[in-house]
Amino acid sequence: MGAEPDSPERNESSSDRWRGLVLRNRLTALVVDKTTVCRLLVNCFLESVGVETKMAESGQEALEFIGEDYDLILVDRYMNNMDGLETIRRMRERHVRSKIIGLTSGEIEIDRAAMIQAGADDCLEKPLRANALDDILAEIDRR
């Protein structure tokens, strides 16, 4: 027999159970990346655990969305016009308190140091693994 219609087992998606991450709270995220495929991939990861996402293809576009509150902001290091470092600096200058995670396809240790200095909380290497954001989301969810 299956789960009752409104039971927790019924409301979890199979990807939530498979990944082991079930969020208790409604979380929101902003994904900033110039590459459409990367934005969509991160968006799929986040939506698979119930995180509502908004996507921006540039730092400038992301700054236009800053009036909204996000639990998590993911920013690519290498973007045209305004790179990830400048985007993060400007967000922090505007008193954005969201957890900001840099994303890089470059030299991870060098980029991590630069992004943290700019105001990021951490930096992850691209392409992201399916569970790369689980610990970060679980930490945000516990707040």
UniProtKB/TrEMBL annotation:
The keyword Phosphoprotein applies. This is Response regulatory domain-containing protein. It holds the Pfam family Response_reg. Residues 28-141 form the Response regulatory domain. It comes from Eucalyptus globulus. The modification 4-aspartylphosphate is found at residue 76. CDD domains: REC_hyHK_CKI1_RcsC-like. It comes from the Eukaryota. PROSITE patterns: RESPONSE_REGULATORY. Keywords: Phosphoprotein. Signal peptide: none annotated. InterPro entries: CheY-like_superfamily (IPR011006), Sig_transdc_resp-reg_receiver (IPR001789), ST_Response_Regulator (IPR052048).
